[in-house]
Amino acid sequence: MQLSHRIETLTPGGSNGWEIFLKAKAMIAAGQPVIELTIGEHDIRTDTAILGAMDRSARGGHTGYAEIPGVAALRDAVAARITERTGVATGRDNVLITPGGQAGLFSAHCATCDAGDAALFIDPYYVTYPGTVRAAGARPVTVPARPEDGFRPRGADILAAAGADAKSLLINTPNNPTGAVYDRETLEGIGRAVLERDLWLLSDEVYDTQLWDGSHLSPRALPELTDRTLVIGSMSKSHAMTGSRCGWIVGPEEAIAHLINLATHTTYGVPGFVQDAALFALEQGDALEAEVAAPFRRRRALALEILNRQNVLRLLPPQGAMYVMLDVRATGMTGLEFAEALLEQHRIAVMPGASFGAAAAGHIRVAMTVEDSAFAAALETLCRFAASCCAPA
């Protein structure tokens, strides 16, 4: 029997760099020690107090079908959080609770694109973006963000990429993989392009609590963009709840109403005990979010200190998120070649930049996701390895 074209073409064939991650996992399973600096998974687990709230809710009976739009109290809490941080009045009817940010990304594209429409996103990009667009039936189109621009997109490039069939633009700030944070000038340039091409703006803001330099500005806070922006958020990064799968979409009431209808026919909501745990976590306020973010702030400082002592790898200091993007082209290797050799020779696993799009070719992404001393030692080894690659034969 023939499967659908859509499911068979979600991800194209050939290498996308993820073989490094898979090879590292296989080596670990075989008992070989590997320093894992590939994916954005916290090295701390979900706070025990949050787990306690989840346990109390489940044992208290909140294990049946939960409200499909989300538990009212959680929607209110998300709305209050968004109102406080953006200055835009946001209510329960502007919020849909989703099974994580990934489900939010898929749903947002379903809401804004018809089959065959072009859905734009910025390159470098989070690795699931192209497949998510294809899963929604749309056509992925990239907009380059250049290293010399701090990996921030130019409005002119958005206009050039947005043809007559373009319906949406997805941005991600703070950015995975680059660590770039879009300032007001960048967002206003994006806004002008979105308005000129009459696009929906989808804003992936799951790293909004991991800010090291500058400040986070949601495009929804710009008055001309409020009614054409869907914001995707999540408990995964802010509260180390990656496995709990609890996120949200915030947007105009009419769009949210239709997205609730979509959820009724797809996910059928998020488990109530997970939502109750998310509500408890949000009620702990900024202090808990700062505690979860603190290890990455420390490791960013460690990375800058170590990398500033060498002159082979070029660094764009990350303004946010849990990654460091390094330009390895001075070694004479591609990002994939560098990552493969580093894993083979030193048992350190990093992601090739090309995993995240053409604009990141010649780079590697290093996740700051192991204990401080282990992270510093791995980064120092990585720097020595890069220097050895440039040494005369």
Task: Report what the structure shows.
41% of the residues lie in helices and 14% in strands. With 393 residues, it is α/β, with parallel strands linked by helices. The chain folds into 2 domains: 5-45 and 287-384, Aspartate Aminotransferase, domain 1; 63-284, 3-Layer(aba) Sandwich (Aspartate Aminotransferase, domain 2). The strands form 3 sheets. It has a 7-stranded mixed sheet with strand order 2-8-7-6-5-3-4, sandwiched between helices. Strands 9-10-13-12 form a 4-stranded antiparallel sheet. It has a two-stranded parallel sheet with strand order 1-11. The radius of gyration is 21 Å and the shape is globular. Its EC number is 2.6.1.1. It catalyses: L-aspartate + 2-oxoglutarate = oxaloacetate + L-glutamate.
Brief description of this entry?
The protein has helices at residues 5-8, 18-29, 48-59, 72-86, 100-112, 129-135, 155-161, 184-197, 253-264, 272-283, 286-307, 335-346, 372-390, and strands at residues 35-36, 95-98, 118-123, 139-144, 166-172, 200-204, 229-234, 247-250, 314-315, 323-327, 348-349, 351-352, 363-367. The termini are far apart.
| Helix percentage | 40-55%
Strand content: 5-15%
Shape, principal axes of CA atoms: globular
User: Using DSSP, what is the number of strands?
Assistant: 13
CATH domain topology of the largest domain: Aspartate Aminotransferase, domain 2
**Gap from first CA to last CA:** 56 Å
Give the C-level CATH assignment of the largest domain. Answer: Alpha Beta
Number of domains: 2
Query: What does the largest sheet look like?
Result: 7 strands, mixed
Unreliable sequence segments: none
**Count of alpha and pi helical runs:** 13
Computed over alpha carbons, the radius of gyration is 21 Å
CATH superfamily annotation of the largest domain = Type I PLP-dependent aspartate aminotransferase-like (Major domain)
Q: Which structural category fits the helices and strands?
A: alpha/beta
What spatial order of strands do you see in the largest sheet?
A: 2-8-7-6-5-3-4
Order of helices and strands: HHEHHEHEHEHEHEEEHHHEEHEEEH
CATH architecture level-2 label of the largest domain:
3-Layer(aba) Sandwich
Oligomeric status: single chain
